[in-house]
Request: fold
Amino acid sequence: MPSLFSGKQITVFGLNRSGLAVAELLVSLGASVAVTDTRPAVALSAEIARFQGFAPNGRLYLGGHPAACIANAELIVVSPGVPLDIPILCEARARDIPIWGELEVSSRVCPAPIVAITGTKGKSTTTLLTAALLEAGGLFEKVCVAGNIGIPLAAEVQCLTRRDIVVLEASSFQLESTLTFHPKVSVILNISPDHLDRHGTMAAYAAAKQLVCTNQTAADWIVLNRHDDSARFAACTAAQAIYWTDSEPPESWAASGFPLPGVHNVQNALAALSVAKIFGVTPEQVRRALENFDRGHPAFAHAFELVKTVNGVQFINDSKATNVAAVKAALASLRPCSVGCVPVPRPLSAETKNVWLIMGGVDKGNDYTPLTALVRRQVKGAILLGSHVERLEASFTGVTEIFHAATMAEAVQIGYTHAAPGDVVLLSPANASFDRYADYKARGDAFREAVHDIPS
Reply:
């Protein structure tokens, strides 16, 4: 049977993991696909080889987006990293060429129901916890984890059936280019300012997140944090709302072996529990899944991980904290647990004013005001590293002592030199990493290396 895409001339923007996956999916569905990328061919040898392997007659437009790349296009598909307001896409709109994202294409051909998880902080952890709980329930033949967590849905959809389920991490970049996306369950963990360098305003950022639930019906569910601004999204959808709160956690979740430190991970687990309840996962299955949860997934690397303790000083790698909400969660998790009966194992000191905080990088339009009280109460010194630290310095001058570092090794050394036993040197940047590193992982690796170079 011909697909929606059979015989279509389609141009994919972005020859990256997501772009390649959706290009291959479209070719398999009968489309004629061209790809375009701003990077030159010399930087894309592996990607070009893969593309030509499944689309030997496919056209390549590299080193920019020339007008020819959309000349014959009947549909444009953008990778999440491609801003929707670049000139060539504005021209495409003027020509009435539809512009979809990879998620829009993939979800249209996905036979399995989707649980879509979004929010400013905690998406990856909640996605993996939700998948673990649904697997423990044994209600589906396959539980597929996909999306922003590193596995494009486009790479998985043709291996799925109606008897499976997808647990999808959905970013604002993915959601903003959807039209008909319709998950069975949507989860909005929290909303706070992030990616304002791309979205422009908080309203635009929230509008992108809202697309996770816009097309849901009364037969669907939306899971929300009752004490977060995201709770207002219940009024924007026909889906049945289920709320969770960390002030009264359910007894069924209190597994003594829960392996994820931090109060923020308690919140992630409660959101996952709400999804499990929708699908009828039993308390015993929940308990067993949480106790056996594997923290070894790559998504947990560089996320509030204890690297090493040197002479009583703990070094925490939270390089994945690229926004203010994530840093706030990290600092809050260094304080005594306030969640009551829920155990929150932490390899950290519960003392206050014992943190040396390494921050900086590429500012994404952050407002650092929400951190002021925590920094004043907990941070002995802020160590600023990166190309956009002026606003950080202005925000924390008079709040805590300010230091500047030229390299990660110097930043770590400053923290260690001034720290006393029981202190924590925390890398939690609140900024993107692209001024100095390929990504947050490379930045975290640099922190790890610098820590391991400290003589015990």
